[in-house]
Design a protein that fits this description.
By secondary structure, the chain is α/β, with parallel strands linked by helices. It folds into 2 domains: about 130 residues, Rossmann fold (3-Layer(aba) Sandwich), CATH 3.40.50; about 270 residues, no CATH class. Helices cover about 35% and strands about 25% of the residues. The protein is built from 14 helices and 18 strands. A hairpin with a 5-residue loop joins β15 and β16. α7 packs parallel to α10.
Length: about 425
């Protein structure tokens, strides 16, 4: 079967002295060449509107078809899908106009658009930009529940929520932890659907240690309470100040977060907003579930890092068990296991406007299980020096994604992240 071609829509920008159909005809050989790699459609800038860019399967590429379109482009620039990439060619002063536009954008807070000639529009390159434009569209529809705020030990958790809303179109809503506690206490029985969830995760667990079936049931009740709250407030991502639940509910949110992230709903513990946003970026760019973990130990000589936490998505593990929550010794944490020799990528964005960035690929290696760490434990042989994480100031959490995604994350950081 012939591989599926990406859909590319070229938006022709041109001088008022030019005529669209004549420009299309003059670029016939360019379009025919592109059609060998992509499914091509073309449209003049005069026919676009904000709601035009609704097809989630298309990559939208402004084609700077002539000089003299720079002022026209200004009027449309901020309605176009991000990240911006320009196509240029050797005709009609196309390249000078593209360079003038990239210089104009360099005065802003996002990095300048990339410019490509026809032969540089490779399938692999466009696949990265497809995922990036998809991610931007998804972020604009994201409503984040900040349940309980941030944990007091996260001293570097502050982010400029207003700036992030301006940058990505996402929205944030604070919800008091009391409403979650009340919901959990009032609803002591699982719905039919959540009974099925409970039965499935219990059946697939290899064992229960320091916890009971009733503890697992209550952990799914916490998932149900959070899910109900998300529906009520029309949210589709969340952070939760989870340690506040231990005293009030005698239950943790570890299983709930594992289930949310497995289902593609970003969910971060401890009220860690930079980790949640990193999780959202990583998950949308790769289509993979994301594991938020603590770096536990550095071995600089071997360049290995040990990470651990209690809320790994079940689908990321080769097998899993249930154990008590590590810090409190009560309720349930997920004890996941990973096969050695598998590739993973560690990533994190940090800072008031997410201006700091770390990424490194690595491979899982054998490690001993220890009772003095959170329940899911992993050791990674890293490609980048460990001090890249330390000296970039990445805080006490890192995000883990299955596979090798360093290039995609670098591209995202280069074109989308705010510059001071």
């Amino acid at each position: 079967m012939e591989p599926r071609k990406l859909k590319l829509e070229l938006i022709f920008f041109y001088s008022p002295l030019q005529e669209f159909h004549a420009l299309v005809e003059s670029r016939r050989s360019l379009l025919e060449s592109l059609e060998e790699r992509f499914r091509i459609s073309v449209i003049p800038y005069t026919k676009i509107s904000t709601d035009h860019f609704a097809d989630p399967d298309k990559i939208y590429v402004p084609f700077i078809a002539s000089g003299g379109c720079e002022e026209i482009f200004q009027s449309y620039a901020y309605s176009l899908p991000l990240p911006l990439i320009f196509l240029y060619d050797h005709m009609n002063n196309s390249l000078p106009a593209a360079l003038e536009l990239t210089t104009y954008f360099s005065k802003g807070k996002l990095n300048v658009p990339m410019i490509f000639s026809e032969n540089e529009l490779k399938e692999a390159t466009m696949d990265v930009f497809y995922r990036m434009q998809h991610t931007v569209r998804k972020l604009k529809k994201t409503h984040i529940a900040l349940v309980g705020g941030g944990s007091p030990w996260l001293l570097s958790n502050d982010v400029d929520l207003d700036a992030l809303t301006r940058m990505f179109g996402m929205h944030f809503q604070y919800i008091g932890i009391e409403s979650l506690v009340e919901n959990f206490k009032q609803h002591t029985k699982l719905s039919r659907d959540n009974v099925a969830v409970y039965q499935k995760i219990l059946k697939n667990a290899t064992r229960l240690t320091n916890c009971t079936k009733e503890d697992v049931y209550d952990s799914v009740r916490m998932y149900q309470a959070l899910d109900d709250m998300m529906v009520y407030h029309s949210c589709n991502a969340l952070t939760v100040k989870c340690f506040d639940l231990i005293k009030e509910c005698k239950a943790t949110a570890c299983t709930a977060l594992a289930l949310f992230n497995q289902a593609g709903i970003p969910a971060a513990c401890e009220g860690d907003v930079p980790s949640l946003l990193s999780m959202m970026f990583a998950g949308e760019l790769t289509g993979e579930p994301v594991f938020m973990a603590n770096p536990i130990y550095f071995n600089r000589e071997l360049n290995t890092i040990d990470i651990a936490h209690c809320s790994v998505p079940f689908s990321m593990t080769s097998t899993y068990a249930f154990n008590s929550h590590f810090e409190s010794g009560i309720s349930v944490g997920v004890e996941g296991y990973f096969a050695p020799g598998e590739p993973y990528t560690l990533v994190k964005w940090m800072g008031n406007k997410l201006e700091r960035f770390f990424v490194s690929q690595g491979v899982t290696v054998e490690s001993e299980k220890a009772d003095y760490k959170c329940r899911t434990q992993m050791r990674l042989q890293m490609e980048n020096p460990l001090d890249d994480f330390h000296f970039n100031g990445m805080g006490n959490h890192v995000l883990l994604v299955r596979g090798r995604h360093k290039k995609a994350f670098h591209e995202w950081n280069q074109y989308m992240i705010y510059r001071s």
